[in-house]
Amino acid sequence: MDLTPYVDNLRRELAAAADASGDEARALAERLSVPLESAARLTLLNVLSAAMGDVTRELAPGSVDVRLRGLDPEFVVTPPPAPEPVAEVREPAAAPVVAAPPAGDADDGTMVRINLRLPAHLKGRAEGAAAAEGLSVNAWLVRAVSLALDGGERPNASGRGKSSGGFTGWVR
Fold this sequence. Notes:
Region (Disordered): 151-172
Protein name: Toxin-antitoxin system HicB family antitoxin
Distance between the termini: 86 Å
Number of strands: 4
Shape: rod-shaped
Strand content: 15-25%
Structural class: alpha+beta
Organism: Streptomyces violaceoruber
Largest sheet: 2 strands, antiparallel
Order of helices and strands: HHEEEEHH
Helix content: 40-55%
Number of helices: 4
Number of domains: 2
C-alpha cells in the first residue's frame, strides 16, 4: 500500500492552512512539511497496525499482519483453516471417501476420511457404476479399492473381507 498520496494530501492541507496566515506562515509550513513526512508515515503505520489488530481479533484463528517494505506497508492475510466437512460434499471433480481398513488387518470399525480428486468423466462413470449396483458412490469406491488391494478377489456384501464367489448354505 502506497502511503505517498496520503502524506501528500496532508502536506497540501498544511500548505492551505498556512496560506491563510500569510507569507511567513507559508514559508514555515514548507520548511516543516519535509521533516513531518516521516512522522506522518509513522502515524499512518500505527493506525494501520491498530486496525489490523482489530481485524485479526475478528478473524481468529486467521490473522492480518502489516509488514513494512521500504516505505510502503504490505498486508499479509492468513485465513483461518477450513472447517472439516461434516456431510459428504459433492464437487464436480472431488468426492470424500471413507475407506475401510485392509482386509488382512483386525477390523476395529474405525473409519477414516480422505479426499479423492477425480477427473469429471471418471466421477460420472463411478456414479453410474455405483447406481447400477444399488450402492452409494462411497460404498462402490471402498469396494473398488478393496478389490484392487486384495489382488482381484471380490469383497463380501459388507464391502470388507474376501468372498469365494460361491454359494453357501443347504441345498435339497
